[in-house]
Specification:
The complex is a heterodimer. Chain A is an alpha+beta fold. Chain A is built from 10 helices and 19 strands. The longest helix of chain B is centred in the N-terminal third of the chain and has 21 residues. Strand 12 of chain A pairs parallel with strand 7 of chain B, so a sheet runs across the interface.
Chain lengths: 427, 156
């Protein structure tokens, strides 16, 4: 089959040119049919999506709006202290019920026709249900019980509020698996305090961000600051690991495991470093105070399908992703420190946050990298991206950053949920 | 009359800080800051929640100079032109030595192929030292457009 014909083919496993996902058709970033199927099969499928942190709703009646894919959801602390979650869409006419990103409520009243819902999403009031002066009103058989907001399963793990639409989703700990429980659990082992939020809108498909997060190769090539100050270099001791399903991943590294000279030489030989390293007048931003016993200096963690955790030196953050369209997504970065940090550590974390987020010295480039891929791949959707760094064929953990195997792992799991897995494909 | 002159001087000074960025004249821009200074771009969301993290956070002139140095030598971002549109300056507090001011602004970004979009709107909250040469001792940029499109590379 000529490659040009692929994009007009019906969506199915045959869209994959290879069984090991070393070629990814550009169509998967652009096709509106793919995007709709993702909302159903992934975001409303058997997965846990993070919508926020329990400390964002400390008091009874506190609520917070989040998203699962593009679906707006609200989580709220009920009078018994338990967190409930529901889709933010009135059961009457589909209006958005909660219109503020956060707040405190006794109940939730839709502004359109004043239908009123409890903190758990049950319909408790319909104005003029019996009509006026014997005329109009709802039919006798109308039962409020049948018109709750769409309620979601909730799991609060280490303070992270996860929700799922599906009854088939396994328990949260089984879903996360030992690798995530180990690493995310370590980052969240002490009580945390939120230091602030960043939000960023990127005009690219959301899966390009998943690829970016799992792409160990780009970290020191796109982000020159990383290379210069040794936050991330291909010459360092590092690894890229996944859970058994390859749905979650972690890239980690040990800063200080290479020398500046060794790195300079390696990057010069590979024609990357063309001039002298720049220096900083105030180098404190690039200092690391080791906070974990295994000596890992950077961890970039992806929990399928919508949340990422990072420890980059002493900046700690959760990044939630929400899809807006096939061509746009938003990232919400929630920065935190520990409740028992001393003032000097809090100040250090605030300063070091300069490295990350939409203006981050080691991360501002990601938005542009994704947008240029999205823009230039659109006109030729039968063509494919190339993922061969770190080898082709089987998908497995690897102890280097010169790899893209973890990116192939994402596509393997994605294809299973999407019903796009070819017979005999790598998993 | 003296008051009118001071208002004009302050307005000129703030306008100069904005146009220096539009021209990518970073030396001139840095020169407008005092030796001891602070520059923070604060998302309005964090301001309202009383949370300390900024999108940019430079607590000294050295760290501000580093931000510029990295921008020039290492950062990669969407190539574009910036235009700061600066509103009138309100003087909130005034002493013999310094003024505290508030100035609304917008930035329009234009691609190198000539397509313009509103990039952000916000407010400069400045503490400006008076003297022969005015200097910014503290600039807090309140960023209303805190869902940043793509990235924020150049300071505001």
């Amino acid at each position: 089959m000529a490659p040009e014909q692929i994009s007009s083919k019906p969506l199915g496993p045959q869209i994959w040119p290879r069984l090991d996902y070393s070629r990814v058709p550009y169509r998967l970033y652009h096709d509106p049919e793919v995007y709709q199927l993702e909302q159903e099969n992934i975001f409303r499928g058997p997965v846990w999506s993070a919508v926020g942190l329990d400390i964002e709703v400390p008091n009874l009646g506190d609520y917070r709006v989040g998203h699962v894919g593009e679906t707006p959801v609200v989580f709220c602390r009920n009078d018994d202290g338990v967190i409930h979650a529901f889709v933010n869409r009135c059961a009457h006419r589909g209006a958005e019920v909660v219109r503020f990103p956060r707040g405190n409520a006794k109940d939730f009243t839709c502004i359109y026709h004043a239908w009123c819902f409890s903190k758990t999403g049950e319909l408790i009031g319909v104005p003029f249900q019996r009509g006026v002066k014997g005329a109009g009103g709802m039919p006798k058989e109308f039962d409020k019980k049948d018109h709750s907001l769409t309620r979601l399963r909730v799991a609060v793990w280490k303070g992270v509020v996860f929700v799922t639409f599906s009854d088939r989703t396994p328990d949260i700990e089984e879903y996360l698996g030992p690798l995530m429980i180990d690493h995310v659990g370590e980052i969240l082992a002490r009580p945390i305090r939120i230091l602030g939020y960043h939000r960023q809108r990127i005009a690219a498909n959301w899966k390009l961000y998943h690829e970016n997060i799992r792409d160990a190769y780009h970290g020191s090539l796109l982000h020159e600051f990383n290379r210069t100050f040794g936050m991330s270099r291909l010459t360092q001791k590092a690894g890229a690991y996944m859970d058994e399903h390859h749905r979650h991943s972690i890239l980690f590294q040990y800063s200080g495991s290479d020398s500046d000279e060794e790195a300079r030489q390696a990057y010069a030989e590979n024609m990357v470093q063309r001039q002298e390293y720049l220096t900083l007048k105030d180098p404190s931003i690039a200092k690391n105070h080791l906070e974990n016993s295994r000596g890992v200096t950077t961890r970039i963690i992806s929990v399928f399908p919508n949340v990422f955790f990072h420890q980059i030196y002493n900046t700690l953050a959760m990044r939630q992703l929400r899809t807006i369209s096939p061509d746009e997504f938003e990232l919400i970065w929630t920065y935190f420190g520990y409740v028992d940090d001393d003032p000097a550590m809090t100040e250090h974390r605030i300063n070091q946050a300069n490295m990350v987020g939409p203006a981050g010295l080691i991360s501002m480039e990601d938005g542009e990298a994704l947008e240029i891929v999205h823009r230039s791949s659109k006109p030729d959707q039968a063509k494919s991206t190339v993922l061969e760094m770190g080898g082709t064929g089987p998908i497995a953990d690897i102890d280097t950053r010169a790899e893209e195997v973890t990116v192939r792992g994402f596509w393997a799991y994605y294809s299973q949920l999407m019903g796009l897995e070819r017979e005999g494909a790598e998993r | 009359m003296k008051d009118v002159q001071l208002r004009l001087d302050i307005a000129d000074f703030i306008l100069a800080s904005a146009t220096a960025l539009d021209r990518c004249d970073y030396d001139t821009w840095l020169d407008l800051f005092a030796a001891e200074t602070r520059y923070v771009v604060m998302p309005r969301e964090n301001l309202e929640l009383d949370l300390p993290i900024g999108v940019m956070h430079c607590s000294s002139k050295d760290s501000l100079a580093d931000r510029i140095s990295v921008l020039i030598h290492a950062s990669k971002f969407n190539p574009h032109y910036d235009r700061h549109i600066v509103g009138g300056t309100a003087i909130r507090e005034r002493s013999e030595y310094e003024v505290r001011t508030a100035t609304n602004f917008m930035v329009v970004q234009t691609t190198l192929t000539g397509v313009s979009k509103l990039f952000c709107s916000g407010e400069y909250e400045d503490r400006i030292l008076l003297g022969e040469q005015m200097k910014i001792a503290d600039r807090r940029v309140i960023l209303d457009t805190f869902s940043v499109p793509n990235c924020l590379a150049t300071p505001l």
